[in-house]
Amino acid sequence: MSTLLAIRDLDLTLGSKPPVRLLRRVSLQVEPGQIVGLVGESGAGKTMVSRVVLGIAPANARVTHGSVAFAARDITHLSEAQRRPLLGREIAFIPQNPMTALNPVERIGPQITDVLRMHLDLGRTDAQDRALALLREVHLREPQRILRQHPHELSGGMRQRVLIAIAFACKPKLVIADEPTTALDVTVQKQILQLIRELQRNSGTAILFITHDLGVVAKLCDHVVVMHGGRVLESAAAARLFENPTHAYTRALFAATPRFDRPADELKPIPAALTQQLNEEARVLDARDA
Ligand SMILES: Nc1ncnc2c1ncn2[C@@H]1O[C@H](COP(=O)(O)OP(=O)(O)OP(=O)(O)O)[C@@H](O)[C@H]1O
Ligand SMILES: [Mg+2]
User: What is the assigned CATH class of domain 5-90+172-289?
Assistant: First the structure.
């Protein structure tokens, strides 16, 4: 089987006077059925990577180097119209904030069936049946009733289940989940992660899982990509990365992560000198690539 998502040497640049580099020669791969964790501190560029894949990078940002291939097809510079059949069908997205991601004035039912009818060419009744089945698959009780409800009538966890149902609705090859549990409280977070893993196992969908939570990565991911300052610093099988992180930044990230088996006072912030060194390296790279 060939690689599902292949990002190669990707540069994303904002403006021109002077240009600001948001991504610096980013490469990462997702194999079919694999769960890849994309981790790093706030501002690392994790969301930007996903936005390039989804074709929703900021309007004044341009891909100035490298490529994105999906299922062996170059999708770096697709137009919106060319990308539309892919999104929701082959590549789906689970957003961070379930409170704002659904249309507040539309019932849940049509928000699910629209996706099914658009991509799978289902008639009204078939789409309705499939929507019910999907709500059952994400373990929502009383699915009949939920189809008739508006988003504000559901809790955050229930809305995230609906959004997950929509993401998996067309059996996509790749789901991109950008911090899908950060907006939820801790017990609900656990349930949602369990659900994502269960659906992934049943469907064989690959997942690009964006998070700053290394605990989540350890439980969920096959492979991990560590980013800082728009760069990939380390990329390795999850087991290898947790056993033997090679980059100083990865080790610092581990030392800064709370763990149940370690008292909180042993947490060490990322050393300022390391951040400084990484920023300096980035400046050197920018001068080289300019
Ligand atoms: N709409 C935008 N226009 C221009 N620059 C942006 C925009 N959104 C984010 N950036 C910049 O792009 C860089 C990468 O941001 P990104 O949102 O990808 O980080 P992230 O790793 O997802 O962080 P977080 O964990 O906070 O979500 C940051 O320097 C940020 O300031
Ligand atoms: Mg982000």
Answer: alpha beta
